[in-house]
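[Structure tokenization] protein backbone as discrete codes
[Encoding] learned vocabulary of local backbone shapes
[Protein] chain in single-letter code, fold in tokens
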Amino acid sequence: MIVFREMMLSDVEQISAMEEAYFSMPWSKQALSEAAAGDQTFYMVAEDMADGRIVAYCGQYCIMGEGDINQVAVHEAYRRQGIAARLLQDFMQESEKRGVRAFTLEVRVSNTAAIRLYESCGFQIEGTRKGFYDKPKEDAYIMWKR
């Protein structure tokens, strides 16, 4: 059974391993720890209760009623099971309870699976950031859900 809950400091080790595995510019353990404890940040995880494994996570900075989603990842063994969509829906509902009224994120223009996921959750492409990503250099779509 997968449980969706707020991230705890004890989750940082597993999330850091996922960052290293899936992102060309991963966040450090220190940055993740600061995000977990921050006043203007909010993170949720999906945990497989069978073994305690963190299988997905999502996080944002919250500024003046807007959530800037900066991380969404799902462990490769758990992809295509609807976990990301469920996590994002729960994440946005909980964020709205905390006063977030709109959400934004950037996504690589080549990441069609993520773009489809975000669109299915109500996000729309509203712009492009040229050369936003490094390793490899790539543009990003700016997506919003208002």
About this structure: The chain has a mean pLDDT of 96. The domain at 2-104 is CATH 3.40.630.30 (Aminopeptidase).
